Amino acid sequence: MRRLAIPLALMLALGALGSPAQAADKVTRSAECQGDWLPGTPTVTDVMNGEISLVGLPAYKLGKDVNWAASPYKNRSWEFVFQSLRWMGSLVVEYENTGEQRYLDRATEIAKDWVASNKYGARGTPSYVWKDHPVSLRTQPLLCLSKHVNASWLKDSLATHAKLLSNARLYKKGHNHGIDQDIALMGIGCRYGRKDWVSLATGRLTGTVKLDVDAQGALMEQAPRYAVYVYDRLQVAMTNMKECGRKVPGEIARRAAALKDFVAHSTMPNGYMVPIGDGSAETEPKIETGTPKQEVKAYRAGYVFGRTAWDKPESAYYSIRYGPGTKFHGHEDHLGVTYYAQGHDILMDGGFHSYEKSSYRYWTLSPEAHNVPTVVGAKFRPRTASKLIKTSYGKDRQAFRLTDKAYGVSRTRSVLVNHGQDLMAVLDTASGGKKVSNIWRFAPSLKVVSKSGGKVVLADGKFKVTLLQLSSCDKVGGQKVSRGGKLGWVSPTYLSKTATNVVVSPAAKSLLTVIVPGTDSPKVSCSGGKVSVDGVSFSAGLL
């Protein structure tokens, strides 16, 4: 990598400053620049060397003269992060921390060139440059720079940002983007003494938080991993309010605190958040949540989370989806389940691949990418709400019943989870005499060992898991198992696509599916409305 040339006069000036520690002492550290708002990549050295790596994609050679229309990977996330200029802001932070003038000079050069090349509404300026989120996120590095550079071009650009941020038609109410818009507008208003902007941002934020985080603390964006982002951003918003001499509204503080319980419940025993909706399986929350009082929690927003015990990696864990129709970061996963037991992922969703407009991205949103029942011969109706209609809570066993009309008739799923002797049982039916089928997506590490007589056995080394299917106590055979192909995929991390085993049931008027971790030969009996699996007995109707 080629290091950018530093003018001799600047090198001499730096030498005159003495040691970096002495130089840093002469630079005022500002609230706008300090704080945990910078991405981990690219590093300051990378930026100074003219090379940046964003959203996990390979490094891009930025050079000294930046091409602001660059989109080397045709990736929307890369474009938005590039235009956010946070990578430029890292140079200003480094200037504050070291006192080395070269960092501030290069940051100023980059920002001034960006402002000149990306006039709002000008021909040649890509439209995404002035979308709500790049505008919001770009405000932070520009404000940071403004603490050390007093220039009309910078102040004017921030005024343009504020004008867009305060535009009601462009405001994303009830969404994390709205929270970022309010933080940005509040920052500009406080920096330049515009009380009207500060008041607008504070007032809007309360309404947005009430829509985005419900009274139980559940995030309404339908992807639990965003709860961590929203929690962190609300901490920033509340800190900025106090520093700007504003009182934090009680509703914001209460709902921010309640979010911690939601994050805890949606985190699996392995320390990663359950990948529901637009959520990667590698999301590890970095906030201190404490330990909730309950092992099982049903959220009106559309989630059931349950576990055997807290703080035990071997604990079983499950999630169930229902609630309002799909929006924001949600998928068509209603009535879907995930299951983790004995230290292993067992049942997984299709996962989150990216925000790219690709056929695979749209497939990950579809019912076929989730562990759901389908009604044979009926057409799926997107964005249909579903309800949790019955529950049974016990220390060692919980059961739930959910229903909706996503296929025009009532489809009903009952879920029972037994702890200690781990198992999950799921009963699917539909009204009007319709037959149902269901999809079961197993973790990629589990490979099929055998399949016969209504039983599918998978294994990961010595660990075994068995799927059994019954209909009115009769064994149901004929399961189709695929790895890859049309259905057998999962995206555990951003832009990844991994082949995995998917079991598709035959059609039946009722399907009872039992997942038994830790064995390849469970003893099963069914008669008189009772089912027994390795001595664990339960009603054939589950509850």
Automatic annotation (TrEMBL):
InterPro entries: Chondroitin_lyas (IPR008929), Hepar_II_III_C (IPR012480), Hepar_II_III_N (IPR031680). It is found in: Periplasm. Keywords: Lyase, Periplasm, Signal. It comes from the Bacteria. Gene3D superfamilies: 2.70.98.70, Chondroitin AC/alginate lyase (1.50.10.100). Residues 323-501 form the Heparinase II/III-like C-terminal domain. The keyword GTP-binding does not apply. Residues 1-23 form the signal peptide. Residues 56-284 form the Heparin-sulfate lyase N-terminal domain. This is Heparinase II/III family protein.
